[in-house]
Amino acid sequence: MTIVEHLPATKRGIGLAGVVAVAAWFGAYALNERMWEWLLFDRLGLDAETRSASALHFFLYDTTKIALLLTGIIFLVGVLRTFITIERTRALLGGKREGVGNVMAAGLGVATPFCSCSAVPAFIGFVGAGVPIGVTLSFLIASPLVNEIAIGLLWTTFGWDIALLYVAAGLTIAIVAGWVLGRMGVERWVEPFVLKQNLLATANAGAGVGTHMSPQLRVRIGLQEVREILGKVWPYLLIGVGLGAVIHGWVPSDFFAAHAGPDNPLGVLVAVGLGVPLYSNAAGALPLIEALADKGVPMGTLLAFMMSVVALSLPEMVLLKRVLKLPLLGAFAGVVAVGIVAVGYLFNAILT
């Protein structure tokens, strides 16, 4: 029996269970750091000043913190997404002209349940619905780039101003990149089978849940999404936190100052170049960003690194190759990369 099957059947039971779960979540989050300090330094007697103890504390504390944040954020977003259907999204974008359509598509891309793994069916479904190629690309760029998990984690780790800068940068890249690619007439670089897709054949592809459902079902869907997403990202979370712990404890600050610090004019380019082949997600990238921030790497460089990891990963490029010919795939990656680099330099100039 899963936790989903053990949920109360009544609204009152759901509400009581929700209050208990929220209280437990806040309690665990508030006691997280104290718990590991007590266990490692008071009970086990480790020296907090040593590199190994500091790295171990970073690993345990950050793993627990990010797991708690992921659980809360994924659940809330999962419940909110039950109010949004893919059919409604396609209806809103279908027939919209470029410009306004790009803005709407980028905004909807943040709210709807798409990621790099669903890039191919999303692309086919939107093109089949009559959405212009440029508008569709704005949607596909914004969906993984402006990630709701990244927003929540950045907010709690670095503050609301950095989180909002991330959102503004991601939306700007998605809007401008989609508009530029749309003006290039890239339809000729889309695989022919995509353009011939019948709307009726794709109407149910990736269809979201409806707006008429009980609160119990919405909660069950939210919990199911937590289980599925955490089940997929936990290896990257552990790897990301582990690398962050190594950076935090052993890698000297001079290394990052030389290669990605404020004194290196190519720091943003280095960060983007390192981020593209790194297959991870916001949950896996954030511990690295947190550790690098402690080493003095500028925030613009860090945001560019995270954006390149999330929006330009090699697995996504491989998936998109099924529907895009090489010229459009190259143009797509190039325009997005230029936008990320420009935003990185802009934020470094603003925040220093």
Q: Which stretches are low in confidence, meaning pLDDT under 50 for 5 or more residues running? A: 1-5, 198-210
Main sheet summary = none
What level of helicity do the residues show? over 70%
Compute the number of structural domains.
2
User: Beta-sheet strand percentage?
Assistant: under 5%
* Oligomeric form: single chain
Structural class: mainly alpha
Radius of gyration: 22 Å
Give the N-terminus to C-terminus distance in angstroms: 53 Å
Mean pLDDT across every amino acid position: 75
Number of discrete helical segments: 17
Query: How are helices and strands ordered from N to C?
Result: HHHHHHHHHHHHHHHHH
What coarse outline follows from CA principal-axis ratios?
A: globular
Number of strands: 0
Please tell me about this protein's structure.
- The protein has 17 helices and no strands.
- It is mainly alpha-helical and 352 residues long.
- The chain is globular, with a radius of gyration of 22 Å.
- 39% of the residues are buried.
List keywords for this structure.
352 residues, mainly alpha, 2 domains, disordered N terminus
Explain briefly what this protein structure is.
The chain folds into two domains: 10-81 and 213-233; 96-207 and 251-352, no CATH class.
Q: Helix and strand layout, with pairings?
A:
Layout: H1 11-43, H2 51-81, H3 86-93, H4 100-111, H5 119-128, H6 133-145, H7 148-158, H8 160-183, H9 192-195, H10 199-202, H11 215-249, H12 253-259, H13 267-275, H14 282-294, H15 299-311, H16 314-320, H17 326-351
